[in-house]
Amino acid sequence: MFEKLADPNGENHALSQVLFGLALRHGWGCPPDPERAVTYLSYAASNSAEVEAMALAAGMKKGGAAKGELVLAMYELANCFRNGWGIKKDAVAAKQYYETAANLGDTDAMNEVAWCYLEGFGCKKDKFKAAQFLRLAESKGSKTLGNTWIWKEKYNPK
């Protein structure tokens, strides 16, 4: 069913593209096909971004109905690049996708991009930036035990 709704030459439904992409990546109800999964996750990101751009152009201040699909597609593409699922591993691309999803409000992505900055995965190590993303995630309800260091004064924004 998701395959039919996800078809870019048919329904071209962004949420179905995300879900079908995940099903293909993990082999949920179908044979695993990680390369095809990346294709469908990319369709979802592209379609969602287009819907969001139209919503913003129409005067909506916070975007439209496709923001959730856009964020989820970005986060899942980051996971593909990080782990080499269906595509060559690319730390820089993974970090960029995580950061985009984090900037769109996804708390999981905030934690992942913070990890990238802490470890120097796809970027130069930057504990200050990591602390900022972890603080943001915590402010949105995603608290991680052992992260009290992020509240040290030296990590306060200037």
From TrEMBL:
One Pfam family, short name: Sel1
Q: Biological process GO annotation list?
A: negative regulation of G2/M transition of mitotic cell cycle
InterPro entries with a match to the protein in the record: Mitotic_Regulator, Sel1-like, TPR-like_helical_dom_sf
Q: List the SMART domains hit by this protein, alphabetically.
A: SEL1 (SM00671)
Q: Which GO terms describe its cellular component?
A: cell division site
PANTHER family named in the record:
ACTIVATOR OF C KINASE PROTEIN 1-RELATED, CHITIN SYNTHASE REGULATORY FACTOR 2-RELATED
Q: What is this protein called?
A: HCP-like protein
Q: Which organism is it from?
A: Sporormia fimetaria CBS 119925
